[in-house]
Specification:
Length: 110
Amino acid sequence: MMTSCSPYRAFTKGTPLSCVQLELDFLFCGGDHWALPYAHLVSSRFDASGTILLTFTAHEVKIEGRNLGELYTGILHHDIEVVREVDPRHTDLAESESVVDKLSINSISG
């Protein structure tokens, strides 16, 4: 887990020994976590604006940011363990870095 002294990383891949992740953990900049099981992931979409939309059986997740192609591919392969929303105080991030500016999770009413 990252500490306040750790450098920002938009996402963390699982360890080579774990192969496929069982859950996708969303870490909000305020410190809250929300994990959803990969088994409940119904569809994934990545659009040119830099937005990833994930539909789970009971939730929709919107990931907004820049340079998210590697994150999207990792989600498709169930390699991603944690997706981190950047703290707005991180102003020293290079333009080439993957950055999650905003995470939102909403329940799907059925």
